[in-house]
Amino acid sequence: MKILNCPLNGPRNISEFVYGGEVKQMPDPASCTDREWAEYVFYHNNGTGVVREWWLHAPSGYWFIAERHRVSDEVVRTYDPSELEQSEFFAAPPADVQEARQ
Amino acid sequence: MTDTMVTPGDTLARSGLYRKIADAEFLSTPESAIAASYSADDSEQARNCGLCDLTPVIRTGWRGKTAAEHLQSLGYPVPENPNQALTKDSGETLVRLSRTEFWVLGSLQDMGTAVTEAARQPSPGSDCYPLFCQDSHAWLMLSGDHCAGVMAKLCGVDMRAQSFPPGSVAQTSVARINAIVVHHQVAGTDVFSLLFDAGYHAYLWDVLQDAMAEFSGAPVGVRAFGI
Fold it and tell me: How close A71 gets to chain B, by Cα (Å)?
């Protein structure tokens, strides 16, 4: 069985994990266009190379990020999401929207 | 705990196993009844390979960024890292499941009455709130010299003493269901506490007994631990 290294629990059988999709930056839902929102929700990158993905360790309910090579299926690194800046997950709204909110 | 024998059918709350373990003698607990003994040699059985249903014992949890300080203020020893457990002198075991999530397993001495008292204390204002694992999770306890041998048949984590010493916690898959395994000591005996979805209570009870048969394992009651 494949082994994946969970940052919280250590190396575990792959059957304990659930794939959670690619790490993508969420556009500001209040100000983005329908096209931008559809791209975020429905469209996925189908490229090769190393990608950042969400994975869940189901027995502990712990979400983390794995960097995986899409051709070799080698997991390069796994880490806690707190290692990334919030801006990696959420796009800042446009300046005029920010001003209007203040 | 009142030291009186009862039948589980007479209590308001019952372990999901009470029909399967009807041949045991039961003691009353604050809210339920717990299997006290199955036979005269329970103590010896527990030292070799025993399985005890502790579901009626009180347990609860806290989550949040200030949960660790709150538990310290309640007098619990807080493990430094996730997936570790510490047992208080009075017998309660504090399990740290992540940076911000803690469970407290009640002591067999008082069947968890002290945990109930702790849960009644007001939580600090923000970032600390209670988690309820009493009714959602069942609690089985494996005891004796063959704990690691039994678990080797059911789960992928190495639970031999050198890699899973007392105080270790593993959140993993046991017999294909998600479970928390805590290695601690009760009355000087090494035990593995298994906490898992209560819906699998009867399933895991049967699976564990099947796995224990190789080591002459059998159910034991809480009297085997000097209660």
Answer: 27
